[in-house]
Prior knowledge:
Strand order of the largest sheet: 1-2-3-4-5-6-7
Largest sheet: 7 strands, mixed, barrel
Low-confidence stretches: none
Mean pLDDT: 81
Structural class: mainly beta
Shape: globular
Helix content: under 10%
Amino acid sequence: MELVSFISIEDNPPDLILSFAIWQPELEEIRSLILMRTPEYEFILDKTERGVNVSDEAWRDDEDDLLKKIEFGDDFVRIITNHYQFELDLRKVDKEEDVLRFRQFLSEGFVNTFKLEEVTSPHRGLNFEPEGTEGRETMCVRMTIRFQDVDSYEMVLELGTKGKELRACQTMKLRKVN
């Protein structure tokens, strides 16, 4: 199992990027495991190339792999691709508060900070609960992902003013096509 130092989320349209910074003690450095999806342009790809691309700085070639499955545990995440499996130890990620936090760096010049919460009912999913926005202190953003079944999920992006009710501004329903 590989130790994750921190996690980063970037939502720079058209890309959605989730990066795991993996500590390599033997080299005394960090390498990145990156999950990236570009739903806006997937329609131009062959059906076998659509989905979440996975890349690892340790790979010698430029060939990305496609995500097949993600499994969560209390302190770990298992990422399974077409050719590889990664078991990541998340105990060091904001361990002092026992929560996962994500920082989203946007090209517009502000940074969103989210607390990740797992949801199990009525559909399994993830809530990215807003904690703050650097550079836009009055703005608030929430993202939710709900897995409808093995082949589909729904992602909702909500925006609003901090302290007030957030409203959905974007809903994406994605289904794996064979």
